[in-house]
Amino acid sequence: MKGQKHLTIVIKLGSSSIVDENSHEPLLSILSLIVETAVKLRKDGHRVVIVSSGAIAMGMRKMDVEKRPKDLSSVQALAAVGQCQLIALWDNLFSQLRQPAAQILLTRNDIADRTQYMNAQNTFKALMNKGIIPIVNENDTIAVTEIKFGDNDTLSAITAGMVQADYLFLMTDVDGLYTKNPRNHADAEVIEVVDDISTVSADVSSAGSSLGTGGMSTKLVAARLATSAGVTTVITRSSKPGNVSEIVSYVQGLKAVTSDLSFVPGIPSSGQTPFTGSLSPRIESLPTPPRHTRFLPDPHPIRDRRFWLLHGLAPYGTIYIDEGAHRALMAKAGLLPVGVVDVEGHFAQQEAVRIVVVKRLHWKPLPNSSPNPDGGSDRERIITSSLPLYEKVNPKPVEVGRALVNYSAAEIARIKGLRSSDIEGVLGFAESEYVALRENISLARKRSGNGSGDITPTRVESNSSSRVNLLHTPGESSQQG
């Protein structure tokens, strides 16, 4: 790999890759190989970040606890004990090869503020510039539901986006994403390449271990998030850490053959119909890579402020907008109150919200309705009535982005559907003519064809099998909002 471009590589390890699920003993053989792989990558000039779960499991071993507690304070106490053990283990292993490592503990609160987010970015950059390998984990000791990333798959994807990584490796106990559950179906095949996650039909019935919170579905969520930031994301087996170097060498070799992986012969766009024709001699000369699933990065990645808005902030509520407002946002305009259909949640000014597109229901004045005692218009009476304001089934509401708002939830509820010139008359003040400025709005990018946007997807399960369907960003509509 020498002589190649210097890359930034994030490697994520779950609890089941770090400790034995039953005895909670550290899996030293795997961890030692991970350390050797990371050091080799460093010697080849690459920058490496490790996202490591395992604090709670290590705490359970230290305190002789057999089953993970259910109450939050006990779990956080075990995390406090285990994090000391975990980072000491990593530091000891890296010290054997004279490789310095650093600990970074994060919660969503640490990156919710733009300045803190940039400080975290700068810390990662400074560490890697000095040849230090950051070891990242969620700060389980203080994290509660409201400020948790949810799982370390998501944390690793946000970390990869933050450091603008080239690769994110999600190490797990299987070779990759399968067409069927390999434990139950002998004919299950690994899907090698995915260029649009929304087209994937794959089995995600494998849940996380008893020690962790993830599973295959959370890895797809992480892959969706990371690829939107331009990060090539790979799922491969954690018991073979050498896969990381081999896969990087293989993919970089492919890039040397062609500048666009989507046009490389032998790589099916959906990963489900292998190419059977003759490959070019240069591609045939590349060594066969280990089994894995590789998610190709979005050619138009979301980075910096847009990435922070979409994925760094936890939304406190939802603003429903009509299709006309969505078209205006896509044309780089701000969000005016006239385009707001409804609002949910409790949030203050400058807090993050989801933006959801709906089909507004245009109600006619109610028959035999009495005049509005406040002198309001029919539109105002309809907006404040108990009738539904938008279609909830066909089409379904779809989340298309995130925003920092200029008004609180209660204030937006009062000015929704009104002209900007009416804001001061209703509220008694007007902070801005916009509910949200365009610079504080980040929309999910729509991929080509019927591809999906880049907001973290929703998992949908049927009764017959566990599969994933990812939300599509709605296309342009001729309906005026």
Q: What characterizes the major β-sheet?
A: 8 strands, mixed
Strand order of the largest sheet: 3-4-2-1-5-7-8-6
User: What is the SS-derived class?
Assistant: alpha/beta
Tally of helical segments: 15
Short description:
The chain has 15 helices and 15 strands. By secondary structure, it is an alpha/beta fold.
Describe this structure in words.
- With 481 residues, this protein is an alpha/beta fold.
- It is built from 15 helices and 15 strands.
- The radius of gyration is 25 Å and the shape is globular.
- The chain starts with 7 loop residues before the first strand and ends in a 38-residue tail after the last strand.
Overview features:
8-stranded mixed sheet; alpha/beta; 481 residues; globular; 15% strand; disordered C terminus; 15 helices
Fold blueprint:
Blueprint: E1 8-13, H1 15-18, H2 28-43, E2 47-52, H3 55-62, H4 72-95, E3 101-106, H5 108-112, H6 114-129, E4 133-138, H7 152-162, E5 167-172, E6 193-194, H8 216-228, E7 232-237, H9 243-257, H10 281-284, E8 293-295, H11 304-312, E9 317-321, H12 323-330, E10 340-345, E11 352-357, E12 359-360, H13 378-383, E13 390-391, E14 398-404, H14 409-415, H15 423-427, E15 441-443
Parallel strand pairs: 1-2, 1-5, 2-4, 3-4, 5-7, 6-8, 9-11
Antiparallel strand pairs: 7-8, 9-10, 11-14, 12-13, 14-15
Helix pairs in contact: 3-4, 7-8
